Amino acid sequence: MRLSKFLLATLREAPSDAETQSHKLMIRAGMIRRIAAGIYNFLPTGLRVFKKVENIIREEMNNTGALEVMMPFVTPSDLWIKSGRWDIYGKELLRFKDRADREFCLGPTHEEVVTDLVDREIKSYKNLPLTIYQIQPKFRDEIRPRFGVMRAREFVMKDAYSFDIDEPSAEISYQKMFDAYKRIFERCSLNFKAVEADSGNIGGSVSHEFMVLTDTGEDVIMTCDKCDFAANLKSTPVVFDEQYQIDRKDYLPLDLVATPSLVSVSEVSEFLKTTFRNVVKTMIVSTNQGFEAALIRGDHELSITKYKRFRELDTVELATADQIKKLNTIKGFSGPIDLDIKIYADNAIRPMINFVTGANQLDKHCMNVNFGRDFNINDFGDLREAQPGDKCQCPEEGVLTTTRGIEVGHVFKLGRKYSDSMSAKFVDKNGKEKSFFMGCYGIGVGRVIAAAIEQNNDDNGIKLPLSIAPFEVVVIPTDLKNNDVVKFSEQIYHFLLDSKFDVAIDDRDETPGVKFKDAELLGIPWHVVVGPKSLAKDVVELKNRLTGASEEIKKNDYTKIEETINETS
Ligand code: ATP
Ligand code: MG
Fold first, then answer.
1. Do 156 and 77 belong together in one domain?
2. Most buried of 20, 39, 158, 484 (most Cβ within 10 A)?
3. CA 444 – ligand 1 centroid, Å
4. 160 band by pLDDT with thresholds 50, 70 and 90
5. Which tens digit of pLDDT belongs to each residue from 220-278?
6. Distance 539 CA to ligand 1 centre (A)
7. Is 58 found in the same domain as 176?
């Protein structure tokens, strides 16, 4: 590629709304441009990287025997009604009507479409197992699109779906995908970890997320210092093994106290001269079964994910101030006494007595509150988020610590969730009808690129590995007026082209400084610099962007350039 004919579109400054390094660098390197919140154009440089990641994914999918298909982006509501997700998917699902008033949505994931497809095409166990995949756009109306293509609204996903006759066979399909994911992320030179995860909106029982480890990741990962446990914070279990006995003789009389404008646990505990641990927060949640309250100790946080799973609910979100008001209580002052909804408490509440709660009145709290005496709890469960320092479940009693990560891939065991609800069946070898055993597997292509850049950059720009860099090598003639420089640059360029390198020549009429800066910004791993001074010494310079190393190579020894690149990469 001649950069004089290319749309390089590099910028010296990053836009002010770009928060993360990858977002800033992808814009500065001319890879992407925003056209609306969470909606991006990929420019030629970005698309080159995109295609390389896509090809790695496609090769590894094909190696597992998965078959590529392409399902539509626009999907009809009836499939979603059949699976039961039309009503519970929430606002991320962008719904609309066609001219005949029929309802559709933009596919945020394709379990419904693929289950329907396979149900129609596969009749017998003889055609199983089957895994099919596609690489195509998805739309999720994310509440907070951000970090460029990392959390976009329209993004391209590789989504694969496996269909098996039973659980043992589905386990093999899952493991194949798990291994393929490892190879994909290794080929993209990512530093990643597979962690246990919650299955969220997709459903199913077991899932693993592939996390790229970086301090700027949105996800928090808990790991154990003794065993190899690693899980997303959202689904990390908290071990509750405290031995306790509540002595009812120790109950103190209930007390209503004024706490003017004091809402937070720290303000209330300080004012009432008690500890965080002696305050109980009453979190009102709105669910598909109505309002409920979750009681959480003052120094803990409610895990909506765990609450949803514990209560086996489809949707759970924190209630708004208005909703809370309708329940005859006040945001910031809610408490369990006389609260006319179901109350569930985190296990950490079990041993507590004489604690502080809101009083359901403005500027008032209750002291010396006790369950059993002052109010009743419907059930206790593991409802809080794990914290650093918590115990691991392992027999070695390891301690949990946190790291951060970016979720680039997710593999799920779905079981019969979709095949049952959509009655997708095959005939087994005994002639009996059975529902398919399914799995589903996603990778966000744009997010992989952003994560790779987040993990690999420096002050001068992007440092992508050879496998996914926009070009593998750039030949940089530093002086276009010098015939020798031009001649040798062209010869090297053509040699590298013939040797099947993805090579660019920076034949733009720009200063050497501009060319070097752009080559570094784009993260091209190898730079061959051809300048009058080095040619006078019969050499050219070969620089490695990733290590910073530079060496002089005899100007006619093209194969040495090829060898060095092949050996070092
Ligand atoms: P998150 O928790 O980050 O929203 P998710 O759990 O909703 O992700 P999945 O439904 O598992 O994501 O989707 C599979 C993959 O698609 C993710 O691992 C990620 O790589 C990608 N992905 C999901 N949402 C987005 C998005 N908004 N922008 C870009 N990529 C995304
Ligand atoms: Mg999501």
1. yes
2. 158
3. 6
4. very high
5. 999 999 998 889 998 899 999 888 888 888 999 999 999 999 989 999 999 999 999 99
6. 49
7. yes
| Single pTM value for the model | 0.90
Q: List the one residue out of 285, 277, 268, 280 whose CA is nearest residue 370.
A: 280
Residue nearest to atom 26 of ligand 1 (CA): 151
Beta-strand pair 379-381/342-346: parallel
Closest CA to 564 of 522, 534, 525: 525
Domain end residue (candidates: 381, 410, 437)? 381
Strand 425-427 relative to strand 74-76: parallel, antiparallel, unpaired?
A: unpaired
Range of the structural domain that residue 58 is part of: 3-236+402-453
The verdict on 252 and 232 lying in the same domain is: no
What is the atom index within ligand 1 of the atom nearest the CA of 140? 27
Asked whether the beta carbons of 232 and 221 are under 8 A apart, the reply is yes
Instruction: Assess whether 59 and 200 both reside in one domain.
Output: yes
Dist CA 475 CA 541 (whole Å) = 10
Percent of the chain with pLDDT over 70: 99
Residue nearest to atom 16 of ligand 1 (CA): 444
Per-residue pLDDT tens over the stretch 246-262: 888 899 999 999 999 99
Q: Are residues 511 and 564 in the same domain?
A: yes
Pocket of ligand 1 (CB under 6 A): 109, 140, 142, 151-152, 155, 157, 200, 202, 407-410, 442-444, 446-447
**What is the C-alpha to C-alpha distance for residues 337 and 373, in angstroms, rounded to an integer?**
10
| Total length of the chain | 569
Which atom from ligand 1 is nearest to the alpha carbon of 207? 11
